[in-house]
Amino acid sequence: MNILIAGGTGFIGSELVDSLRSDHQITVLGRDNNHIQDVFGKRVQACTWQDLEHLDASRYDVVINLCGQSIAGLRWTEHIKNKSLSLASKPILP
């Protein structure tokens, strides 16, 4: 399957990519192609948010959105919780 993973370099995303990449074609959507390549090498296709408008969404069988705000060093408040839920509910592909 062709799988697009937004947030694929994060804590959960990087583990998911590692577990899926041997059997599937993975595209990782992130802020920086160089960082994606540093994490995964050539084993995945890298795509930035700026490239998203040129991405052909029809080629993906599955889209997984793992984007979120880092809460390292922050308290888990209602504001942070609501902001995280808001991020998770936004569509990433047109």
TrEMBL record:
Domain of life where this protein originates = Bacteria
What InterPro entries does this protein's entry cite?
Answer: Epimerase_deHydtase, NAD(P)-bd_dom_sf
The record ties this protein, via Gene3D superfamilies, to:
NAD(P)-binding Rossmann-like Domain
Q: Which Pfam family name is an example for this entry?
A: Epimerase
Report the residue ranges that make up the NAD-dependent epimerase/dehydratase domain in this protein: 3-77
Name it: Putative nucleoside-diphosphate sugar epimerase
